[in-house]
Structures are given as structure tokens and as C-alpha cells.
Amino acid sequence: MALSGIQIFKLLPKTNCKECGFPTCLAFAMSLAQGKTELAKCPYVSAEAKAQLSEESAPPIRTVEIGKGASAFKVGGETVLFRHEKTFYNPTALAVLVRDDEPAAQADEKLARAKKLVYERVGLKLGPSMVALKCASGKADVFVALVDKARGAVDLPLILMASGEPLKKAIEAAKGLRPLIYAATSSNADEMGALAKECGCPLAVRADSIEGVPALTKKLVDAGIKDLVIDFGSRTIKQSFQDHVVARRLAIQKTFRDVGFPTIALPCEMTQDFMMESMYASALVAKYASIVVLSDLRGENLFPLLLERLNIFTDPQRPMKTDPKIYEFNSPGPSSPVLVTCNFSLTYFIVAGEIEASRRPAYLAVVDTDGLSVLTAWAAGKFVGDNIGPFINKSGIGEKLEKRTLVLPGAAAVISGDVEEELGSAWEVKIGPREAAYITPFLKQNFAS
User: Which of 26, 29, 84 minimizes the C-alpha distance to 53?
Assistant: First the structure.
């Protein structure tokens, strides 16, 4: 960010209208300087100031959106080298490569897996982000047929890897999808740039090395094409890793705009070993590829990559939370117990999984602890009788029960007296196991099916 909060404030209308969500224009300016809000939230900023501020407040790595509608995916937009400094914003897009010269059955299987391999984790749906289509045949009609097939099989953004007539025809076939066009080089930059400008699609640029990137991106930006994605051209993991780190440092520490774009890496072209390819992908997700293209997607390689990505792109300053409310498992009835836990997402899903596995009907009361785990919330005064008791009473769960049994985590047994006092004699408070792994035997031993 080149401008300070005070410098930004001088360019704002200073109306203190509060329509941006901040009490004053100065507060808005300070937040904008820290990258915590967007200029678009100010409804009265002048066109001249908007032009200057938009350029100055843009992140060092440009945000590029690929695709349209609900499946659109943003890449880039990062502002720091390490997530603990602030956070990372736009997760790495994991794409599967489908060639138009591979057997139709194999292509169908890849597309089917791209649609099917979706996992639920801590309340989020995790799955592939894109499909990369490569024209290996050189035939426009064959490539267009593959584009049509992919468009009908999956609702994911596309990468069109082709040139000349096959690419032009494919763009027509993918009209309205805003695919990523791959790739402009030093020899075809004018042609590819004109094509990207005409269809309004983001454009990938491929150089022979990182040294060749700045001249290529500058030429295209000067031509009015700003939504760019960089392929450094490196096809070994060592060089690709190094190129990504160097580019991120130049963009963020030196504000070198010519490399300040999201990147695409192709571990599928670095090795013939499928699992080694996945290892390369894991390194590139961490440092700092925006799009990673894999030769295939299978559970054994995709799921670990999705979890790695989730861990890296989760804001370290904000605990992952589950909605505080009463959840039902295994069709509970009037005699079913009510287990209590915090709203830290990981804790919730572990506890919920154990309750479901027990096949015993039960309710789970998830108390708002600001995303803290049970012991941390107890230490902070958020998982205590004064919080749990009123929550249970207000939830109305007691009205559904003939036998009111509340089960507290064993690690928080010390609060049982306070909870009993809050709930009154109508409730029986039991102490459950200290570890979630023992919830299933606890329920089977103490409650009928």
C-alpha cells in the first residue's frame, strides 16, 4: 500500500456519512490503508480520487477472477509473504488436465471425478476448482467437442490451453464462461492479447524463465490487458519453487508490479510419477502458486491437498466457528440426552462424528464460545454455567423432552454445579468423557438406542 491513511483521507469527501460502515471518513481511510476494506464502499468519492486511490490501494498481487456465476474463482490478491503477518485471501485453485487426444472414456472419468470428489470439512465444501482443457490434437473440431463435453459435465471454470483456430473456436464454445486463455508468449503476445481483449477473458502468459516475465506482462498491461496469470516456464520443482518465492518477494517487498499477478504451475508436466506430482503440488500450494494443474484427481491425492490448502488459507486471527444452536442426531426423541460442546468448528465435527457413529439418538447443544475450544473457552469465562444455562433455557430444547439430561464434557466437569444452579432441578447434569473418542461407548453404556 503506497498511501498512508492520512494521505487517503485527504482524497476522500470528508462527509462522515457512515454509509461505508465506518463512523468517520478517517476511520474508513485507516482501514483502507490496512487493506481491511474496499474503496467501492465509499459512495461519494470523486472519479479523480477513485482513479488515484484504486491504483494506489490495489494489492501488490492483482486479483483475477476466472469463470462466471457461482463457480467463479478468484486468484491472487495477496498482500503478505507469510499468513501469520495478516492472512492469505484467495485459495490455490486445483485443476485437472484433460487432453483432447486421450481416450474418451478416460476423459469422461476425469470429468466425473472432478464433479464427484467434493468433501465436507468443518462446515465447508472442498473440491476441485477448475478444469484445464488442452488441445493436443491440433484440430479445432476435436478440441471444441472436448470443451462442450466439459461444459456439460462439470460446473467449474475452464482453462483453454490452445492457440490459433482451435482456441478461437473453443472460446466461442465457452462463451459466457469467462475461461482462462493459455498462453501468450513473446512470439504471439499481440495475437493472444487482442483475443483476450476481444472476448474479455483473463490471459495466461508463459515465459522461458522468470527473467522474461516483466517485459511480457508490461507489454500486455500497456495494451489494456490487466487480468493476467503468470507461468514462469519452469518445469522442475526446484526452479518452479524458486521462481514463485522470488516473484512473491519482488511483488510484495519491492512493489514490482510487472510480476504482481497470480501464477499457474503445472506439476503434471514435471514428472510421470503420479504421487510425486502430488508432492510437487503440495509444495507449490504452500509457496505460492495460485493455480496448480494436475494430470488427474483421485481421493488419495486431492483430499490431502485440499486440507493443506484449507490450513494455509484459513485466517489465523479468526477461529473457525460453527453456528451456535441445537443439532439433532439419529432421530432424537423425548428421552434423548443433550450433549454440550463449544462452537470451535473442529471440536464440533469431531463430537458430531462420534455421536453419529454411536447410533444413539441425541441432541448436541453448541454454545457460542467465539470459536474457542472447550478448555480455552472455560479459561476465558465463555464455557461456564452463566453461558450454558441461559443458552439451554432460551433454546427451548427442554420443552421437547420428558427426561431432561444434560451431558457436559469431562474436561469441564468443574462447571457442573454452576450449570445445575442455572437450569434448576428439572435437569439432570451428567459428566461425559474427557476425550471425544470415548463418546460412542459412553452413549451406548448410558442411553438406550
Answer: 29
